[in-house]
């Protein structure tokens, strides 16, 4: 299935003109990645029908949309690397990142609308609703960078919007394209949403403790940006008021006043001392347990999609 997704992405017939618009899009999509979202579309479809390749236009459309969000995220975060390669705004420039990213969004909507199977109107509405929610999540993420009072519940809701709803969209989209029963569509959405929460917490962990060669980008990016990730919340809950004040002051220290490596090293030492990696792992496992319970309500056998979801649990990138 992954090979078919890669081939479909590589076969998209982008125009050659105007120069500079489509080359960055091909570049971004050639970077690789887990292709989690299109795989969920196709796996969910295949739970109900065997001709899953009919859902491929929507699947690669959703992957194009996902990469649109990454392209703009990298620009907003001033990130230099993505999957071990230069980000678009570094390889080209900021204007290119904006315009090529916008084009990816429109191409994605066009691809998804071209599937013409199942309940296409519901598919289109689901995609638009999800895209708006993801923008809401991104804005919360930006807002939280300048706040010191972000609660854990607020953070979980932010990552639900920014990350989980697109996984929920992928699974439900596959089911809608297969014309599955309405309740099964909702079950698959809730299942993938829980997997998405676990997936984002893994990203938080890998940003701090991943291997840069495997993770595909430098570690410590969230620390340098002062992001109030789940790891920050877990640490704050285990600190005295004075320790919490000092830790937040460290996260909020601009790089003009501290070396990047020192800021990262000091934050990681705090996480290790408080055993935050174990705390994060326990929460990831709890979300997977919730996902399993959701999937138990599905009216058809679900082992293929569950096996795929659990394969992501020990990922390193």
Any descriptors?
317 residues, mainly alpha, Farnesyl Diphosphate Synthase, two-stranded antiparallel ribbon, 16 helices, globular
Query: Architecture in CATH?
Result: Orthogonal Bundle
CATH topology grouping:
Farnesyl Diphosphate Synthase
The total count of helices amounts to 16
Overall 3D shape: globular
Q: What structural class is derived from the secondary structure elements? A: mainly alpha
User: SSE order in H/E notation?
Assistant: HHHHEEHHHHHHHHHHHH
Percent helix range: over 70%
Largest sheet: 2 strands, antiparallel
CATH-assigned homologous superfamily:
Farnesyl Diphosphate Synthase
Proportion in β-strands: under 5%
Distance between the termini: 20 Å
Count of distinct structural domains: 1
Strand order of the largest sheet: 1-2
- Residue windows where pLDDT falls under 50 for at least 5 positions: none
User: What's the CATH class label?
Assistant: Mainly Alpha
